[in-house]
Amino acid sequence: MQRALELAREAVGLSSPNPPVGALVVKDGRIVGEGHTLPPGQAHAEVIALRQAGEQARGATLYTTLEPCCHFGRTPPCTRDIIGAGIAEVRMALIDPNPQVNGKGLAELKEAGIRTYLDMESDEAREIAEAYIKFITVGLPLVVAKFAMSLDGKIATTSGDSQWITSEESRRYARELRRRFDAVAVGIGTVLRDNPKLTARDREGESHERQPLRVVIDSSARTSPAAQLLQEPGPVLVATARAPKNMEKALRAAGAQVLSIAAPDGSVDLRALLKALGEREITSLLVEGGGTLLGSFFDLGLVDKVVAFLSPVILGGRDAPSPVEGAGVPTMAEAMRLKRTRVEVLGQDVLVTGYLR
């Protein structure tokens, strides 16, 4: 199963909105076929593994990180291929929460005489599929807040200089992280200050073929049509609340999608934006800040997960910006505490990951 999980990780960000799944076929203690789910409309992990195995699949064991699908979607049901291949045993890490599956695939395999085993304690499999699980159950993307800060909790100096707080190892990790998400969001302040590309790149700095949707939260459409993110490959969405018609027209001419979605206070309605992204089958959203945008997401209780880089530098300054602003909480009892935290070391930095839900 560990190898199946490794394969599933390769599909994160690639298979969406389908779940990232890894599967392999084992015969006489030897892997004879393996694979992970491909982009929508292409083969699922189980089918790829079975094709590789060929006749050796008969009487073999199939390991898969998620219950095989049993319904017609963009592709035929995997359960039919498994049964037709003569698999004797299926071991799966998770039940698929999709109402069209949700135990039906397992039941179909059992009815065909295939032995089935379920690992209900597979936290790693659940983490790999977490964006799909949230999306398929509530129709909204998983929201991950990502920020980098100094040891004293600053994201820039008093003059606004922020390049670079973290080490090159952390920055490479952050660029690669974008590849795993369907969409990446920043506020207009970040666009005006840093003019970022927001592209997903590999460790050598080369852009990936598949790019996330880049979302700019920009109430009054101040994004320049010449902004770097509009010169890069991949789609861009500018979410506005009160965009002047000429600015909206200029952004569309530059290749951006423009979505007007106002809250009563004249800002972009973030809850409505998440709903709109869900309707576009965006299953995961990486919110990269800055402090105003992240503060709004935290204040509204929209953040599911936090990815925070902590660098061993001191910036000081009463007016230096912090990663999360907004209204905050009045008492420590109301503090948003992370659960299931994980701590890693990247170069000289510390990476803290944890969940709010």
In terms of topology, how is this protein built?
Layout: H1 2-11, E1 22-27, E2 30-36, H2 45-53, E3 61-64, H3 78-84, E4 89-92, H4 104-111, E5 115-118, H5 123-128, H6 130-138, E6 142-150, H7 168-177, E7 183-187, H8 188-194, E8 213-217, E9 236-240, H9 245-253, E10 257-260, H10 270-279, E11 284-287, H11 291-299, E12 305-311, E13 339-346, E14 349-355
Parallel strand pairs: 3-4, 4-5, 6-11, 6-12, 7-8, 7-11, 8-9, 9-10
Antiparallel strand pairs: 1-2, 1-3, 12-14, 13-14
Task: Provide keyphrases for this structure.
single chain; 357 residues; alpha/beta; five-stranded mixed sheet; 14 strands; 26% helix
If you had to describe this structure to a student in words, what would you say it looks like?
The protein is of the alpha/beta class. The protein is 26% helix and 22% strand. The chain is built from eleven helices and 14 strands. A nine-stranded mixed β-sheet has the order 10-9-8-7-11-6-12-14-13. A five-stranded mixed β-sheet has the order 2-1-3-4-5.
Order of helices and strands: HEEHEHEHEHHEHEHEEHEHEHEEE
Q: What gross morphology would you assign?
A: elongated
Overall mean confidence score, pLDDT: 89
Number of strands: 14
Backbone CA Rg: 22 Å
> Which bin fits the share of residues in helices?
25-40%
- Within the largest sheet, what's the order of strands? 10-9-8-7-11-6-12-14-13
Give a concise summary:
The chain has 357 residues and is α/β, with parallel strands linked by helices. Helix content is 26%, strand content 22%.
